[in-house]
Amino acid sequence: CDVSGRIIAANAAMADLAGESPAGRPLLDLFTGRAARQAAVELRRAMRGERRWRGLLAVNGEQVTVEVRSRPLPRDAGTLGASFVFTDVGAYERGQEALRTSLCEQKAILDHAPVGILFTKPGLLKECNPRLSEMVGFSAAELARRDPAEMFTSRAAFEAFRDEAFAALAEGAIFEKAEVQFRHRDGSLFWARVRASAVVPSRREDGTIWIVEDVSERRQARRELLALMNNSSLAIMFTREKRIRRCNAGFLAMFGYEPGECEDLPVQRLHPSQDDFDRIAGAAYPLFEQGRTYQAEAQLAKKDGTLIWGKMIGYPVNPDDPSHGYVWIAEDRTRQRRDEQSLRVALQENQAIFDTAVLGIAVVEHGHTLHGNRKMEELFGYAPGTMRGVPVRSLYPDAELWQAARLDTARDFAAGRVSVSERLLARRDGVTFWGRLSGRPFDLDHPGGRSLWLVDDVTAQHEASDAVRRARDELELRVDARTAELAGANALLQDEIVERRQAEARVHHMAYHDSLTGLPNRALLADRLEHAILAARRAGACLAVMFLDLDRFKTINDSLGHATGDFLLKEVASRLCRAVRASDTVARLGGDEFVVLVPGAGSRDECSQVGDKIIEALAAPVRFEGHSLHISPSIGICVFPDDGGDVDILMRHADAAMYQAKAAGRNNYQFFTERMNGAAARHFALESNLRQALAKGEFEPFYQPIMDMGTRRVHALEVLLRWRHPERGLVLPDDFIPMLEESGMIVPVGEWVIRRACEQSMAWQRAGVAPVPLAINLSARQFMHRTLVASIKRIVDETGIDPALVEFEITETALMQHGEQTLDILDQINRMGMRLSIDDFGTGYSSLAYLKRFPVRKIKIDRVFIRELEASSEDRAIVAAVMALANSLQLQVVAEGVETEEQLALLRDYGCQYVQGWLFARALDADAAQALLVR
Ligand SMILES: Nc1nc2c(ncn2[C@@H]2O[C@H](COP(=O)(O)O[C@H]3[C@@H](O)[C@H](n4cnc5c(=O)[nH]c(N)nc54)O[C@@H]3COP(=O)(O)O)[C@@H](O)[C@H]2O)c(=O)[nH]1
């Protein structure tokens, strides 16, 4: 300061002390109050000599105690004044105080520090805080005496640690190791972070301070976090500056990246588009700034571009410092989204069903409807949306019905079943209707909880079923009445069934049996023969088939009638059955044909025995209605296997043999030979040709004159049939008449002969030929045929012939066989004016009684008696006897077969009136006969 007290210059420290540089200001301004006055005194004194005093400076409103030392400026200073050295004595004191305070604080820090702190000097542990003692289990004093290696897991670990730390410290650097494993006194291990630095970096000998921080828990937490991340199915990533810094396996799996691919990947790549990313970032980061969590569900993009749905949670690692980045956790919810979508659709569908169902649907809880669909509202008469809270009780007409429904429902629900019923329900306006209810609890384990009900209006069905029930009741009444009626009818029906069964049995029997004789018929015979052949073939045995045809049966049948024929057939059947063994089969094929099947018979002797027995059985005459009928069989025999191997062949061969028996004179049996096949064939061919001959006009009547012995003129013409066969020429009657008779064709052919002869007679008469009687042959079968008389009458009427010109010749045998019936026919013919003669007289057995009664005019002595007349005295005696008989009965006699004059002479001697024979003429055709007549 100069002598005026103005500060000439001040150093920087002074400026610090004063708060600003005081240069140029009066020195006294630096002091306050009383101190300024003292300073003024000291300023003056300072000009004179050195001074030391204390004062108070005013600095920024505060007082600072200073010690001031002053001395006058040296003379060479160029100015008068004094220098002043200010020492801030308050600062020192405060420094001391601060030091003390600092030491206390440091002590407190050391004592309470959460980290272990250790001071060492080379080879010496100086001090440690309680936390370190706690960490290692040794007090500071104990530690000072211990080998530091004890605190490590091994000596090697200690030495490695020491070398590494000392190397760093030796370079004046700070040693830091994140995780070092230490051993506690009790042997347990812990992890610590160690930081060490020299107390004075340039002087290591001044010691080293070690900070030991127990990081076991943090390490464990970090490991757990790592495990959590690595094993979590959630995607976890850490982002910073909008790039992925770390992510877990779950993240890689969710987004399709390989390990290492995601580090530094822009987060934006996880989003479908920049817009998506911006939208999410725009929503998330403002929350992060507030330290809040962001949550959202959004579409995310996988590495390959596939979009997935992810639920994301993001939050800042350190809400106070965004630079630490963010944690993002994402969950793949694609499948859930899909399921939710499906569920949503299903719910929509359900809702649609609910809304449009034709059934009423309601949810009920605690006796009230929670809601009902439109149909339900309609059924019960509620406006749309007004069914919520409606008491179920109000849906029933009365409390009683409601209670009954409740009890039933509770019982069904408790039993775990759907409650289905039909009940009378009430609309809001009181109108009742029948509803079919179906209810079930939402949760079967809580039957008293919420339940779902379906209601259908079944009033119409109910009424219909009521109607049906009424109708059914009515019907049942009627059915009862009808049942009673039917019971009676049923009894009748049962009787009918029995009858029908019997009829069926009869039909079945008839199908296989001959209705007349009861014998097996052709079908059953074929079946038995078939079986017998099989059995014989298996046993290597034989069997015989015997074909029987009754001789002259047809004649008897035709002449004596069917009743006689039937009786005869039954008798034959009976005799045949008795003649053979029970094991043999007697069958009737039809007509007069029988077959006897004899299993086991193979030799000629065996067959002959059976054949003889049959002939013998039929030999005795059959007596019927006064007739004594003689019947005989023609039997054809063939043997299996020699003569045939099947039914058809055996039957055919037996039949052929039978024809042979017939040809051999009847009443005999013949064994089949191959030769017979030809004969049978011829026989069948003849029959076939004969059937066509009439139609083809192959028949032709010939005429043989019967001469009057006295006049030697033609007395009559015998009509003799010829068959003008296209190949065989003129066939004589003996070759085809038997076949015509046998087949019954004799009836139409015989009628044709009568008609043709009458027509011829009329033709001759018209030609001027004098009328000559015609002698027409009637076979026995033709004679007995019931149509004979009528047909003769018709022919006479139609041709106009004089009946007196017609004479019928009937064989003696035919006449005698049929007794009274014959008489009747003869009478009818006779009454028509026609004459009758007995042909072949002498060959049969005439009953004189009948002979006497028959209206016959003539008898013809058979030519067998004429043939040997000259030589045979017996024939002559017969002729004489016949002549005597005829005379006594007043019958005319014709001798036929007269071939010689001698025969003629003898006959004349016997008084025979008429003769016929080749001596006069053979049978002539019509022209020749006419010529003979007009001669
Ligand atoms: N029911 C019918 N029977 C008829 C018919 N036409 C003929 N016949 C019968 O056929 C048998 C054979 O007749 P046929 O071969 O014509 O023989 C007759 C004469 O030709 C034969 N005859 C006459 N004279 C002689 C003779 O001197 N010697 C001789 N060896 N034969 C002679 O006799 C037959 C006439 O016999 P009959 O009738 O007994 O007078 C025969 O039995 C005919 O009856 C017909 O249309 N219907």
Throw out a few tags for this protein.
5-stranded antiparallel sheet, 30 helices, alpha+beta, 935 residues, binds ligand LFPHGCPZ, 7 domains, 34 strands, 8-stranded mixed barrel, Beta-Lactamase
Question: Would you mind describing this structure in some detail?
Answer:
With 935 residues, this protein is of the alpha+beta class. The chain folds into seven domains: 12-95, 2-Layer Sandwich (Beta-Lactamase); 113-218, PAS domain (Beta-Lactamase); 232-339, 2-Layer Sandwich (Beta-Lactamase); 357-457, Beta-Lactamase, CATH 3.30.450.20; 467-510; 518-524 and 533-558 and 565-672, Reverse transcriptase/Diguanylate cyclase domain (Alpha-Beta Plaits, 2-Layer Sandwich), CATH 3.30.70; 692-934, TIM Barrel, CATH 3.20.20. 45% of the residues lie in helices and 26% in strands. The strands form seven sheets. The protein has an eight-stranded mixed barrel, surrounded by five helices. Strand 11 and strand 12 (307-316) form a beta hairpin. The longest helix is centred in the middle third of the chain and has 54 residues, at 459-512. It is rod-shaped and about 250 Å long. The N and C termini lie far apart (229 Å). The model has no long low-confidence stretch (mean pLDDT 90). The structure holds ligand LFPHGCPZ. Ligand LFPHGCPZ is lined by residues 704, 718-721, 732-734, 737, 750, 753, 777-779, 809, 839-840, 860, 863, 896-899, 916-918, 923.
